[in-house]
UniProtKB/TrEMBL annotation:
Gene3D superfamilies to which the protein is assigned, alphabetical: P-loop containing nucleotide triphosphate hydrolases
UniProt-recorded name of the protein: Cytidylate kinase-like family protein
Domain of life: Bacteria
One MF term in the entry's GO annotations: kinase activity
Length: 197
């Protein structure tokens, strides 16, 4: 069985799909809990990841100020060190057996492995995305729209910062699934089939 690495639009149900796949396959699932694994291996400095994880690359000026703020002399920037620690942890967990990874550029980190399925999950129906956000985040439609735009922008910027690639470029993925056409259950079944090929 292959590992699964998912990038997803906010409100597309990508996280839910990943959880269903992991549960059905009986394999480990990593999203924000990946940061706990980084901390176990690299110590307290990795706690800073919680502050910057998939959020902190929202603007170029902020990125520059953060990178400059954590660099000292000729030492490697702390921000870049944290990125290395995340990538190293993803590779190590993958080597230990199939897993499901959500976000954190795992699709790019594992791109050279032949036993990883790299997937982008999106929804072409904005109303369905907003409805899902309203339900999962317990917010108004107006707040859901703002959250959707902000989170997608942050994920796009995070992906570009660490990979120098466009988050939505089809060339980054083996498969794309549209949850406006497919339920999360159908997506999970498709992915389980592909992971076992």
């Amino acid at each position: 069985m292959k590992s699964l690495a998912i990038e997803r639009e906010f409100g597309s149900g990508g996280r839910e799909v990943g959880m269903k796949v992991a549960k059905e396959a009986g394999i480990s699932y990593y999203d924000s809990n990946l940061l706990d694994k980084v901390t176990e291996r690299y110590g307290d400095s990795a706690h800073m990841l919680n502050v910057y994880d998939e959020k902190w690359t929202g603007s170029l000026l902020f990125n520059i100020s953060m990178a400059a703020g954590y660099s000292q002399g000729n030492e490697q920037s702390k921000v870049y060190q944290m990125g290395y620690e995340v990538a190293d942890t993803i590779k190590r967990l993958h080597r230990n057996g199939p897993c499901v990874f959500i976000g954190r550029c795992a699709t790019d980190i594992l791109k050279d492995t032949n036993n990883t399925l790299r997937v982008f999950i999106y929804s072409s129906d904005e109303k369905k995305r907003i409805k899902r956000i309203v339900e999962t985040e317990n917010v108004s439609e107006a707040e859901a729209r703002k959250m959707m735009d902000k989170r997608d922008r942050a994920r796009r910027n995070y992906f570009r910062f660490w990979t120098q690639k466009d988050w939505a470029d089809r060339g980054n993925y083996d498969l794309e699934l549209n949850t406006s056409m497919l339920s999360t259950e159908e997506c999970a079944r498709i992915l389980l089939y592909a992971m076992n090929k």
